[in-house]
Amino acid sequence: MESEEQQLTQQTPQPAPKKSFGARCKELWNYFTLYEKIWFFSILVVAIVFAFVFPETDEPTYTVTLDKSAYTTAAAGDFSTLSFEGTQDSYVICHLDITEGDGTQHSFSMTEISGYGEWSVEPGDEKDEVASMTLQLGLYDKKTDTVRPFDFAIDANTTIAMECYYNGDEDEPMPLTVSLVNANGDKLLDSAELVLQEGELVRMNSFLVGVGWITFLYVLDVVLNIACELLISKQSKWNFIVSLGVEIVEIITCIVCLYRFATMAVTLLFWIPCDIISFVMWHRHPDRQQEELTVVKKLNWWQDVLLVGAIAVWTVGVGYLLTLIEVEGGIFATNLAFERIVCYLDAAASAVGIANGLLILFRYREQWIAWYIVAILETIIDIMAQQWILLVLKAGYLTNTTYGYIKWTQYIRSHKQQTEQQTA
What we know:
Elements (H helix, E strand, L loop, with lengths): L3 H8 L9 H11 L2 H20 L6 E7 L12 E5 L7 E9 L5 E5 H5 L4 E3 L12 E3 L2 E3 L4 E3 L10 E8 L9 E7 L9 E3 L6 E4 L6 H23 L5 H19 L3 H23 L17 H23 L12 H26 L5 H19 L2 H36 L1
Antiparallel strand pairs: 1-9, 1-12, 2-6, 2-10, 3-4, 3-5, 3-9, 7-8, 10-11
Helix pairs in contact: 3-5, 3-11, 5-6, 5-11, 6-7, 7-9, 8-9, 9-10, 10-11
């Protein structure tokens, strides 16, 4: 006859034995199919290869100084124009420091002088007229679209330091020719060629950290994103925990690259709270037969129409507002046209991203279509920014989005059939 202590031991539920680290790793490995493992590691390997083949680079910033040592004539008068006639290559002027003869210093951004964050020296060819070859010195008045003179004189005792980027296509830049010109057309600096040498490099301006860290952020972004995508396709709530890591990495990348401010704001104010709420929502709707799965569904046609309309309005409105933000430096520091185009692309990507977040939150299959659109928009941005490593991630997006859409569609059909059988 069993003792009272033995009977009590048998009736009391025993805790499950604690799994070892090796057992947990094996369980995680077996959780994914062979296709999913091959897809994940293929993207990871290609991303690492791209990190070595196409490492992130930065455009050097040079300083060209005009002072008494460079002046070859002593024409009288107040010199109010910088002339770059004779320059046969492309440069971008991003900052001016002016020191008067008595030592008084002035610092001006190009927004203050020209109304633009940067000013391009763009020579024409033999058929075209020379464009953007003179820069009027003074303070830009946005209301009148004119430049009013400084409240100090620029003469033979004035020192001007120009901070600029080389924006041409050659390995070795052509000389930058610059002259100070007065109202009569007299030159204080007579066609002196100032060649940008490596010794004149003063700082790396485009990013806030070293380019090695930028490359590391790109690779980390790829790893976390493909892991998150894979978990979404498997209808796992844990994708939102991985997604929080994705959001942090992408916010840091936007800050150090000084670009995609719409995406950064949406990530900070929308995606992080959405990931937390979505985790809770998915946790509350497990599949009755497979608890690791979350029940998913699809939109009605009128919901599709409302969604597309909202995205269009957001893209135009936010895109225009982004074009009003003047940023010195950044990943598009030497291409203002691309910078403005990316404002609208970024607005569109952020709008579709918000829609995607809401669709994921409420478990709608159409979130995969949103992912297609986001992937295409971000592919265009990555090409314009020459972020080749991130193109690997977009290739992963497009392949896994197809895989996830098929899996969710199959689940919805089987779930619908089970529901009809139960109600029959």
